[in-house]
Structure formats: C-alpha cells, structure tokens
Design a protein that fits this description.
Helix content is 29%, strand content 20%. It is built from five helices and seven strands; from the N terminus they run ααββαββαβββα.
Length: 153
Amino acid sequence: MALPNFTQRYEAGDTWLAGCSARPDLVRAAWDTEVLAPIPSGAHWLAAEAKSGPGYYSVQRIPAEKRGPILADPEGDRLWWLVPLTAVEELADIGQLVVRPAGWFLRCPPSGWHIEGRMWLSRPDGSGRLTDPAVLAAAFGPGGYRLPAEATP
C-alpha cells in the first residue's frame, strides 16, 4: 500500500483551515507564496493564547488524542490553541491564557509547513476537532490534566 504524498497527507487539514476563512482562495494564495494567511476567529473557533514557556509545558500535559490544533510561534514567544466558541467563560480564570475575541486574525501557515517561524505542534486534521476548554484549563492548573475517574482501571 502506497503512502500518500506530502500534499495529500495534509490536504484535509489545509482544506478545513482555509474553509474557516470567508475567502479560502486568498488563504491558499498566501500559502502558495509562503506567507502566513490571516484567518479570523469566531466562525468556527476562538484562539486561546499563552506565552511559550507555560504553553509548551501545558501541551505536554494534554494527551495527543485530547489536543486540537496548536500553533506555535517560538520567535514571538506564543502558542495558540484552537478552542470552541463557548470557551471564553471556561478559560476566564486561567491567568496564563488570553482568549482572543471573534474577528481576531490568527496568522497561520498550512498544516504541513513552517512559515515565518510558525508551525503547528498539533496539526488541523480536517475533522474540526478543537481542544476542550476544560482539558486546556486543567493542563494549566497545578495538577495538570487527569483522566476522569471512570476511565481509570
């Protein structure tokens, strides 16, 4: 069985991400010229922003299957989690996170490439899966994320 080529491997995530914009064609045009594409929050997701230090630590505290897309900008010292539109209240008390409002533009590379130093730590996969705000809040807390009691043997 042949493995899909690089473009096919990431196409579903790129299609979903570009589709989060009112102008997917402009998103694709930006990526074709190796420029970050500004994608507005608010229609499909919000962006929860953290400084890189506590952010990277928190990423490690969330199991891979519980992570939605996470964008990193090491030079800018920032990470962004794509979270549901309902996340504002659930994350309001997490001092290390700022939930950007609807209409805020997140400058994104395509899911399989690094552009201008930005890269996806957890790539969009085309499913629309986002990081659950409760899981993200727990990852920033003192105990980290834990499986629910009913999930432990």
